[in-house]
Amino acid sequence: MNKISLRRCNKYDTAEIIPVLRQSLEDLQFDPSAVKDKRVLLKPNMLGAFPPEAHVTTHPAFVEACAMLFKEHGAQVIVGDSSNGIYPVDEVWNVTGIRRAAELAGAEIAPFEKSGSVDKNGIRLAKASLNADIMVNLPKFKTHGLTYLTLAVKNLFGCIPGMIKTDCHRNNIDRRDFARLLVRVSETLKPELTIMDAITGMHGNGPSGGNPIDMGLIISGRNIHSLDAVCCKLVNINPSDLDTLCHAEKLGVFDPNAKIDIIGEHLDSLSFKNFEMPSTFVGKKLDWGISKLTLSLFWRHMNARPQIDPSRCQRCGLCLKSCPVGAIGWKGKDTGSAPKIDNDICIQCFCCHEVCPYQAIDIKRSALAKLNQKLDQWIGRRRVKQ
Ligand code: SF4
Ligand code: SF4
Hints:
Layout: E1 3-8, H1 14-27, E2 39-44, H2 60-72, E3 76-81, H3 89-95, H4 98-105, E4 108-111, E5 117-120, E6 123-126, E7 134-138, E8 140-144, E9 148-150, H5 152-155, H6 164-171, H7 175-189, E10 193-203, E11 211-221, H8 224-234, H9 243-251, E12 261-264, H10 290-297, H11 299-302, E13 305-308, H12 318-322, E14 328-329, E15 340-341, H13 351-355, E16 361-364, H14 367-385
Helix pairs in contact: 1-2, 2-4, 7-9
The site of one iron/sulfur cluster (SF4) has 14 residues, from α13.
């Protein structure tokens, strides 16, 4: 079954979301009565202590609507996730509004940091992420500095609890290695369903420092990779530009040539032409070769790098805690200076950019890199249209 449901929904209002969810499940031929007496784990995106209006995390009204729907069909619903490990756990659950959403729907909560972890297929996963009969993945449609987009596969990285994520970055410095890890996580957990909050997404320099973009959609599917591929097409990039989809193809769990049945809205009528990819984005599968050549010749100058803006920095120190390789230091803290990044140590994982609550860390590219990016996007978008 390779069906993806695209349904319109323009408002974070549980009464409006629930009928759209029902329609989406019907599109996927998922019989909701199958959840009766089952433990259903909802896995939203709870990146950090960001309020719903920041559109960094899955919206609480969306989580509440999903929980209510499965409760209505007799499931025992649990909402679980872990943030990047930098923010206090309770603060994340309170500020995102997801604790309240679970309470309103009569669901339990499972902060993954508190459940302990177990080794499964060589990955440390939260025990609570493995305790359910049915897992339903609830990602938010966003951009991401390292993985370009954070969609269905990337959302499951939250099942690796707290600071263990930092080790994962340290041990997978190359973005392709990191993508391999993400696909291993998704293939280990194999969520039954993914229902994506794309009512308001985030573009630009996500996953926390970008800008909200109204997309007015709920995107659902059973095949997690097909769903990610459809999302790429919605924002005019080639699915092969995502390392996760390339690796899924190599593993034989995603066939880019297989037909995907899109149910609901027509893909062509939904193209988000103004959607901005992150500054780090470089289309990777370039058949014309020039970009690859320039990248290899000028890599140090082409690479995007994080840069702290001292005028916006509030000296909270969270970026230092997030850095897996200790590239950020406090030289001059006593004099009130902002932290500094040592570019010789930095591995460009962009965790610091992701956690900064004040959007004080920019992603900078050289003029050459910007030119290369424009060419990539132009070529990539032409290719997507063909
Ligand atoms: S750059 Fe951001 S995360 Fe780092 S100390 Fe400044 S405000 Fe805090
Ligand atoms: S400075 Fe930022 S981007 Fe560089 S390694 Fe540390 S957390 Fe990652």
